[in-house]
Amino acid sequence: MTDEMALPELPFPLRPYGPDAHWSYENGMLTGWAGARQDRFVPPTGEALEPVSDAPRLLGAPEGDFQLIARVKVGFGAAFDAGVLYLHVAERQWAKLCLELSPDRPTICTVVTRGHSDDANSFVLEGDSAWLRISRTGAAFAFHASADGERWTFVRIFTLGAGEEATAALVGFMAQSPVGEGCVVTFDRIEYRPVWPDGLRDGS
């Protein structure tokens, strides 16, 4: 693929980062592959200078307030395989909103990395797909997830970076297979809204 990919749903181009995922887009569906043991995580029990593990990402730079929404479907093959909406501020400042096999049931999981990564499970879903949403206003970011794309469950709100760092954040898509032999991830129903949600906890 070329260095940039333009999706008609997004007002900014996307560029690949990390390992090659063979990203492709056709008929409203974005597809990527995570290779064996590819992940993006800095263990909180590790040393401060440990290298950051890596997984394929496809990212772009939105302006101002926004919501990035997509339905993700994961070809689960091993524990912790996941499809991810990803947020990047710096090499050790980034966050993930995941539909992950954690460890044996599809689960909404989040990671926020500030030097080291935290890791939190939110709720379990049936099936291999879910709707994910990242939102930003100023330096604040919010994660939501949904089983149907209509009623949204609030997952967390946080800050990452400050000032120009936060407003220059990259957002987009990621695939991971930390302990498995790889998995395919698809994103569809992709939507971009240039506004912060009206309510974080009312299901809207």
UniProtKB/TrEMBL annotation:
Ranges that cross the membrane: none
InterPro entries: ConA-like_dom_sf (IPR013320), DUF1349 (IPR009784), UCP022704 (IPR015987)
Record PANTHER family: REGULATION OF ENOLASE PROTEIN 1
Protein name per its UniProtKB record: Regulation of enolase protein 1, concanavalin A-like superfamily
Organism, as annotated: Streptomyces wuyuanensis
Lineage: Bacteria, Bacillati, Actinomycetota, Actinomycetes, Kitasatosporales
